[in-house]
Design a protein that fits this description.
Oligomer: single chain
Helix content: over 70%
Number of strands: 0
Number of helices: 1
Largest sheet: none
Shape: rod-shaped
Distance between the termini: 51 Å
Order of helices and strands: H
């Protein structure tokens, strides 16, 4: 594992953005599936 010695804050914010992107995609997929389930149930 290689550690970039650029700027710790930059690397940290990049990691946070990547984490939120992953979580956001999962939540979006889950919400979309749930909405479709509710719509098709009615």
């Amino acid at each position: 594992m290689q550690i970039n010695k650029v700027m710790p804050s930059e690397g940290l914010s990049d990691g946070i953005l990547r984490y939120f992107a992953k979580v956001g995609m999962t939540v979006r997929v889950f919400l979309t599936g749930w909405i479709f389930k509710v719509l098709y149930r009615v």
